[in-house]
Every structure is written in structure tokens, then in C-alpha cells.
Amino acid sequence: MSAEPRAEQRPQFRPVPKALKYIFGLGLGARAVLMSSHLAGWLQDRLELASPVTSWTRMTEGLSLLDHGISPYEGDMFHETPLVLMLFYCLSKIWGGLIPIFFLLVDLVTGCLVHEVGTNVCRHLLEKQGRHVKSYSTDSLSLLLTGKQLNSVPRLMLGAYLLNPLTIASCAAYSTTGLHNLVIAGALLAAVQGNRLLATLATAVASYQCVYPEIFIIPVAMYIAQLEQGSRFSFRDPDSRLSLLQTAGGHFSWLGFLWALSFLPFGSMDWLYSTRGFVMLAPDLTPNMGLFWYFFTEMFEHFRIFFLCVFQLNAVFYVIPLAVKLRDHPMFHLHLLVGLTAVFKSYPTFGDAALFLSLLPVWGHCFKYMRNLFLVVCMWLYSIVLAPVLWHLWIYYGSANANFFYAVTLAYATAQIFLLTDLLYAFLRREFHLRHGPAPKEGQGMPILMNLK
Amino acid sequence: MAERGPTLLFSVFFCLLCYVFHTVASTKDEYSEELLIIPFRSGQVYSHFEFTTLWDVDFAQGGGGRYKLQHFRLFPRALGQVMTEYRVQEMHLTLTQGMWQQDKWGYPVTSAAPGAELWAWFQQEVDDVDQAWFGLTNALSGLFCASLNFIDSTSTATPHLSFRPQGLAEGLFSTKPSHLQYATLPRENVCTENLTPWKKLLPCSTRTGLAALFHAGQLYNTQYSSLGVHLRPVCRNDSCRDASLELRQVLSTVADPPATLNGKQDWSMKRYFSRSLSGPCPMAVTSRVYVDVTTNQTSSFTLKPEPTELKLTNYQGYNRKLAVYDLWSFPFHKEHGLNVDMKWKKEVSYKELFPPRLYVHRFVTGYGQEHGGIMSLLYNRHPYLEQQIIYMELLPWFTRMYLHTLKVETTEGNLVQPLLTRYTPGRDRQNPYLLEIVLTLPPDSTTRISFSFERAFLKWTEYPPDANHGFYISSAVLTTILRQADNFTVPPHMGSGLQSGLFHSSTEFPLRLHTETLLISLPTPDFSMPYNVICLTCTVIAIAFGSLHNLTTRRFQYTDLKKANSGGMRAWLAQLFGRGKHATSEDKLREPGKESEDPGEESETSEENDYIGEQRELVTPRVRAESDKKDR
Question: pTM above 0.90?
């Protein structure tokens, strides 16, 4: 939320190019049309778009409980954070019509933020390339980034966010996933700009809102430390350590501040259990696109806690090996984490994955090393089309059962995992080729194996 | 003098004994048994047994624990001890099989929810109400052979408006709102095993008196059958300076003669209880049978034997004619027992029924297994009087109620503004959803209360064995005070026993109605899948973990296949196709690899070779298809 005012001012600084205008117009138009159509009600209950945390029905229930003078955190119907609740409460009190406008605005601002993230990351990559180009192999000129990307990539990202049918549907469903994406995009932008105060605030807001971005602080801290320390950065260097600690400290103090602020409206910390506790313990087994629901429906009672720990650790643990492997590329690490949490979080929606998809164009230069894009695209389409169909067959017609929908969620998760690991593979391979040339020097004409060792 | 010693001792002992007996006898108790038989217009016959024990306990004596119950005489000891142990002030337990049909039968003497319903007020001194409630439900469960031990926090609520204390609640008996506990078990099946312990609590058991009619096989072969135990403190006399403890044991059945007799309504004790009465219970002060003969004018029947008395009552312009058999004055020595026998001249004619002025229906709305709704229709058929009511809905946690969808309106579409809404949201696997609304029903109207809910997905172990049978939602409760009593089957009684209700006029007619229980189906998982699901989901996670592990723990490296000796056929093939197909250096990079042929790796440990073996699995399927296929 804190990212909002900054972002709203941004596009005013320079004239908006024509292509961007089209994207804005088309994206917002599609959202507005969908919102006003009768599909909106159907979309609101789509569990692919709205999880128990982000569902608008639940938000309405929370507002209604508040109207009746009951704390929404007393029951188990509401899991959004108090600040968001208060925001919507004010909006609905001022004028009910503000809410669709607000959702449009949120997506618009997220789009702008993603655009800015694109510009900044591209600039950052080019600068970095400039610094390291001496260490690159002379043969790998074809792999180098060019200034052209600076223009096209952000636009592509904006388009990928605003024109993505998933975000359009998610916005028309009034799913607060849009808001989650906004704060995460805000965190990404603040991170790439490298201002410690802003970056820690933005990550704190993001993790306050969606819990899992807590782990973003590791790449963000590394990035800021590298900016400060330059080439001297190392985990053993006391100065670097101090910088890392400062960032982490900043993050947690902001988080504490936000928590204290949330304490005020209800005078208790019950909300913490209803929001964080809910996401961590995943007690609601309503199907969604994630891996948790069916697994914990079918889990044996005495293994439940163990597997809950395993699954939650699995969602956050990758940050450590990635921090070691990608220690020189914290931005890539951060973007990967956006994707990883979108797969492994306890209540994922399509909207979460859509944000990661819109970040992909920044890493477009790695695409040529990706091996199963076609498979991933097919699996995505398969799951997006079949999820509602099989859901209806199970719940409404009774001719399918839970396994059908489960299969779709498995395919969806697998597709995302393939995409993520493939992206990481492609990135690492490009890095390898940058240093060792696109082809091996000795043994020309020989079949050469490129392999991991 | 030597002879007088034992005499003195004896007289002292005798005095002591007298004193002891005196103190015991000073707690007076009284027992009465009554049976009310009402033939309904629809042909069914309602029999309501009421056994009342009044005990003048000295409440002040016990100090803290007010029910210091001891020296039991007529009051059942088994129940008394439970009440003392858990410091229960008021307790109402009903076990019901079947559904009371308000629109056909009017109001029952005591309304009961289908299944088991238990509510209790604990004494003010009780600190841990939950603990006391847990103890009470378990004790009653043992006492009545019912599944009351399954009552836990998920089915218990504390309604603030609907269940006020029915007995004394002031002075010594004042209590706190939090000390009320209410729970229902709508799925409870009630049968002989509940009746047997219940009738053992009666002073005469089933050997003589009205209880001799209880033949389980007959009682449960009826449309409706309800057992009840109601305990409350009441005023001892009009001045109400002292209190007594009242225990009402209630049994109601509705037999359906036309169904078995081809449309004839004939009813007799012998046929429907397979016994006749042989005399009153010797302990009973009152032992009476009342037969409502008000309808005798319209659809005439003959009543045999002749009643000992005919009584006319009139409350607020509503006349009722009752035939009374007093078992104490009935000439049992002349007759062979008392067999009340009603014989109709004609078959039952199914004409228009007269539903009571106020009644309620409830049903499930919606389709599919994702969402659902509950709708109640509240009928106020009074032509000019409004009716204020309290409507209570208790939903289990797995039907997650949406308060924002709550809508109260008349069927004409006019919104009805509730005077008060009390809502306690539920928590998954912890608390139920409790809704209480105070409404004013407009005269001659039908009011619709509707809301929607979301069906929860349960863990596979939380489903009952017959998961697709569905889940029961307990009945909603409508509580009100009627202003006119002409709707009543029997006006409620402020005093004890049926008699006081039947023959004493009153100006207030508190009424409680229970709606239908509902059966809803929840979406089910595939119960045969746990192992498969665990395997499949873990596999997907393993794909992520394996790939990320590989990519983050190893480095890229060129491997020269030429140097790879002893690759045999596979290396040769790889070479062949590598040469033949791919000309550009870029493509060569994508050649499938046979890692282990690398000479550099020969010296390495087998552990690392294992790693590489793993890697092959991961890499091979992703590389260029053609050469790979032939490779294999």
C-alpha cells in the first residue's frame, strides 16, 4: 500500500508513449467490461481466482461483521489483514462505487510498478554487464544485452500484466490478489532502486500482507549490500554483514510498526492468528490451485504437523541455496522467489502466478536456453481450461470426483515448477556461456557435452 | 435402678432416632402422574405423559452448593447426584424420534427438537462452565444411554435470548448468561435403550401406575416419540419465600390409527400401548388421565369407559372439554383395568386443517456442493396482532454462514428490520455459528429469513462412515410469548403438573417451536486415495526440490565425448548422430550426454557417479528428442 502514492506520481514525469496508452486502455477496458457483466458474480466465487484469504465474498463478510460490531477475527470467515479491512471499510463507507474503481486502480498501479521494475532491472543488468564485460569470453558477444531491451522489455511486462486474462479475471473477481501483487511489485521496485529505507518498508508491507514475501528480505539485503560494498561484498566481510543486518533490522522494525498499527483497530492481536496463522497452518481445505488442500485432506492425522512443516519449509527453504548460488544475481533470485512462493504457498491463485509471468520478459535473454517452454505452455492452458470444467463436474454434476480437480492442480503446479527450474537452468547456462564462450574452444567439431558437475 | 439404665439408654436412642427421622422427613416430596390424550383432526392421537416430582429441598442449607441433595425418597438418586456434582441449576433434556408437525397437530405440550437436545443453566458459583458441561454431558450420556458424550465445543453454544431460565432465577438462584450451555445432536436415534433408563427414574418404574403402559415396541412404532427430563427450581407456594426442586419426566407419542386401520381413527390403550391400566402408582398424590373431547361435537366418537368427571375449561374465550379419569377413584375392582377406548362413527375425513396462528418451516436452498442456503418461513396467521419472536439458528462449523447474506423480508417483498441481531461467528473445528434475531412479524403475513452458507471441505477422517448420507443441521428455535392462547394444545403451566396448565388461567403464553432438522451433503474427497495423493504430491515437490538441488549445487562443465573411452555403442551413436545432424557449434552443445564416460570422472568416487546418474534422468528427457531416442 505504501508503494501506491509513489507509483501514482511516476507516470506523470514523462509523456506516456502510444503503445502504453493502448495497453492501459485495453487492459482497463477489459476489466471494466468484465466487472459490469454478469460474469463478475461467477468469477467472485471461482476458487482459482479467489482463495479464502483473498476472496471478495469473505471481505464482504468481514465488512458486514464490522458493521454488526463483531470483530471479523473472532470467527473463521475472514483472513485479510486489518489494514486492508480498514481500507475497504472506509471505501465502502464513502461510496460503494469506489470499490471497483479501486480495484481498477490497483491493477493499473501494479502495471506501472511492473513497468518500472522492468526499466530498472534492465538498466541494472546493463550496468552490471558493463562492469563485468571484461571477464566475459570474447566469443559470447551474441549473448550480450543491448540497449534495445530497455525500451521493449518494460512494455512487454506491462502488457503481460495488464493484458493477461488471469489478472483481468482476477481483478473482475475483486480478488485481493491484485492488492497482494501490488505490494509485491512495490517491494520489487523498491528493492531494485536500492534505497534501504524504502526497500525494507516495501518488503515489510508485502510480507505483512502476504506472509511469504518475508523471504524476499534475503536477496533484497544482499542486493543493497552489494550496491554499498561493490566488489568487496562477501558473506565474511564485516561491513557486508553489517549492511545485511541493517536491512533485516529495517525490515523487521517496519513489520513491527505495521503490526502495532494493526493492533489499534481491534485492540488485540487475534488477527495475527486469523491471517498469519491461517496461512501457516492451512486449516481451510477448500480446493485451490495449490498443493496443500488435497494433500492435507487425505493426510493421516498423526503426520499432519510433520508434513505441514515440510510443506511450509519447502515454500521458503529454496531461498538459502539460491542465495548461495545466485549471490551475484540477487535480482534474478528475487524474481525466482516470486514464482516459487506463487507455487508453494498454501492458498495460491492464478493472480499470484500472473505476476511472475509478467516478470519473465526481463529474463527474455535466457529464453533460448529454455528446454520445455512448449510443454509448460501446454500444461498451463490445460489447467486453466480444465480447472473450472472439472470443478463443475465434481461439485455440481457429481459425475467427477475430487481426483479430477486434483489432477489439474498437480499439472498446474508441475508446469510452474518446470518453468521456474527451466528459467534457472537457462540463466545459469547463459552465465556459463558468457564466461566460457558459446562453444568450447578445444575439440572443435567434436560432440561436446555441456553438463552440470 | 439397675433396670432403668437400659431403658434410659433406649429412650435417649429413640429420641435421637426420632430426631434423625424428623430431619429427613422435613424435606417433603410429592409425586404425581398424568396422561393427556388428544385426538387430532388429522386422525392422529397424541398421548402426553407427565410425571412430576416436587421436592422441598432446603436450598439455603447447603451453603455454597445449593443442591445439597441427599436422603432421596421419590426423587431419582442417579439424577440427583449428577445434579449435585456438576452444580446444575436447571436442566432440560429431550430425546426425540420424529418430527412434530406444527401445521397439522398444533403445538405440543413440550416442544422438542428431533434428535437430542440438552440445555442447562449452571449455578453462579461454577467457575469452569466448560468443564462442568463436559462432565454433565458425559454423566447424562451414561445415565440415558444416549450419545450425549459427543457434545463438544463444536456443537455447544450460549444463546443469550432464546433459552431463559424456566424456573426461579432470582435471589438465591440468580445466575450469569455465560452459565447457559445449549447443544443438540440432530442425528441421534432414540429408541428402547433410552426409554429403559428413563423409566427407571420413576418411583414406581413400570410396574404400576401410568408408566405401566410403556411398551417399547409400541412406543417407537409411532410417528413421533419424545422423551424428556426437565429439572428446575420452582416456588414452593404462592408467597414464593421457599423453593422446591421440580423434576418433570415427559413422554409424548403421536400414534397414527388411520394408517393402520384403513382410515378409521379408533384408538384404545390396549391397541396402542398393548396394556391397560391396573391402578395408580401408590406413591402418586395425583394420578389422572385426561382425554380431550372438545372435537367430539364435530366428529363424534364414543368414549369408554365413562370418565369419572367431565371438565370444561375456558381461557380467553377458548373452550375445551376434558374427560377426566382419576385413577384413585376409578373402580378398578369392578372393571378389569382401565382401558380408555375411543370409537369413531365415521372414517376420518381429511378436510381443511387449521394450522395454529404461528408456525414455522425451514428448508435448504441452492444446488451443488459449493454453496447453499437456508430459508425459514415464519407464518403469523393472526388477522390483526403482530407477533414478536426470537429466532435462533445454530449451524455447525462446516456450514460457514455468511452474515452479509442474511435477509429478512415478508413474502410480499417488504423488508423486515430485525429489532436485534446477535451473531457469534463460528471457528473451524471449534465453535458453531450462532444467530439470534428478534423480529416483529406483521399480522397475517409470512416472513422469510434466508441466508447462504459455504460448505467446508473436511479432512477425510472427519467424515462419518456414511459420508454421502449427509450432515444434519439442528433445528432452528423460535421463542415467543403469545398474546392469545387459542392456538395452544395445552397452555404452559407456571405451576407443576399438567393440571395447573389445563385448568388455571394465565395471561402469558410462552411458546417454543422447533423447526425441521436439515440434511445437507458436503463435498467428499476420494477416500481410497491417501497413499496416492501423498505419493503424487510429494513427487511434484520432489521435482522442484530435485531440480533446484541439482542446479544450485553443481556447476556447468564441458565434457569432451571424444576422450570418453569405452563409451561403447551409446557413445558411438552419440558421436555418429552428433556429427551427422548438427553442424553448428551451438547445436553441439545440446547433444545428449553420457556423463559417466568422462575420463576425468573415472577417478572420482562412486558417490559422485550416483549424482551423475541422477542427473542423467533429469537432463536426458529434456534434450533434443531425435538423437536421444536413438540413443536409448
Answer: no
